[in-house]
Amino acid sequence: MKFLDEAKVYIRSGDGGAGCVSFRREKFIEFGGPNGGDGGRGGDVWAECVEGLNTLIDYRYQQHFKARKGEHGMGSNCHGAKGADVVLKVPAGTEILAEDGETLVADMTEIGQRVRLAKGGNGGFGNAYFTTSTNRAPKHANPGLEGQEMWLWLRLKLIADAGLVGLPNAGKSTFLATVTAAKPKIADYPFTTLHPGLGVVRSDSREFVLADIPGLIEGAHEGVGLGDKFLAHVERCRVLLHLVEGTSEHAGKAYKLVRGEIEAYGNGLADKPEIVALSKADALDADTLKTQVARLKRAAGRTPLVLSSASGRGVPEALRAILAEIEQGRVEEAEQAPAPAWQP
Ligand SMILES: Nc1nc2c(ncn2[C@@H]2O[C@H](COP(=O)(O)OP(=O)(O)OP(=O)(O)O)[C@@H](O)[C@H]2O)c(=O)[nH]1
Ligand SMILES: [Mg+2]
């Protein structure tokens, strides 16, 4: 399945059905009163967060979603039926934004979450409704109310606890493949990864979700390479694992370049906790390793982890560091959450 992380959709809820003007006409029944039924309510448009989706690709093929109209009221006090709803099924992590692309309408983060995006129009009252003591035979009914229509943006921001960032070829996908059951494409050319991938890491009997995204290059925030929009997929992460290729020319420069792009992207990404690791340690001789570690340490302002997905060196340490950050995040979240209401 192809990946799509942004889509624009048009939605319209159903119009309400019109009320009916009708009078009871039966043999032997004199003065049959008004009996026009009310119109039915128009259908609503809902968004629902469902399992098993990780892309918005379905919205490339269908962009218009209209709920059905309510049926008109009929004689003999028959009310019109409610129009059928439509439901937009979206993957977990989808933000629903207004047409301006900024105003958040809903954030779909939990499987099963349902949000009404547009309410169907109310049905009109039939003439039976308007009967009063002074007007025993009203000859008018209401039309139904119109449904609402709007354009919305769907934007997917995958939900992961930790995210991998780095230059192309830094070994991000290889790391994901080493620590999870995910099978990302791995090759020794840049931009092997075009779409983000997720994997579940099980370590020390705990679990977390790790996201692998495409590589960043200089000028990504101006659209160079694959741009930097895919960074949205690590926006929800608690911690970033920044891999710096040990075999690169200068690990310190490589680190700074990526940091520069993360800062240019904004959205709070630069403030996230970051674990820095020098990757592909197995491919370096002792001297080069030492130099690269020293350069990276100077650039990052702390001692980097030394990592090799090939030999497994440093992998448990990296996972432990990530887990510690995630735990820390959970503790902070629990502290910030309002205390539960008092209950007897
Ligand atoms: N020797 C060695 N090679 C590695 C290691 N990790 C990755 N590689 C190789 O480095 C190349 C790039 O690896 P990827 O995992 O595709 O790199 P990436 O960061 O995902 O690259 P993009 O998806 O292009 O951004 C592949 O040929 C891997 O086999 C490692 O620990 N040691
Ligand atoms: Mg990759």
TrEMBL record:
Summary of subunit composition and partner proteins: Monomer.
Residues binding GTP: 166-173, 191-195, 212-215, 279-282, 308-310
InterPro entries per record: G_OBG (IPR031167), GTP-bd (IPR006073), GTP-bd_Obg/CgtA (IPR014100), GTP1-OBG_CS (IPR006074), GTP1_OBG_dom (IPR006169), GTP1_OBG_dom_sf (IPR036726), OBG_GTPase (IPR045086), P-loop_NTPase (IPR027417)
Designated name of the protein: GTPase Obg
Cell location: Cytoplasm
Stored PROSITE patterns: G_OBG (PS51710), GTP1_OBG (PS00905), OBG (PS51883)
Cofactor(s) named in the record: Mg(2+)
Family: Belongs to the TRAFAC class OBG-HflX-like GTPase superfamily. OBG GTPase family.
Entry keyword Hydrolase: yes
Keywords annotated in UniProt: Cytoplasm, GTP-binding, Hydrolase, Magnesium, Metal-binding, Nucleotide-binding
Record gene name: cgtA
NCBIfam families: Obg_CgtA (TIGR02729), PRK12297.1 (NF008955), PRK12299.1 (NF008956)
Keyword Cytoplasm belongs to the record: yes
Domain OBG-type G: 160-327
EC number(s) given by UniProt: 3.6.5.-
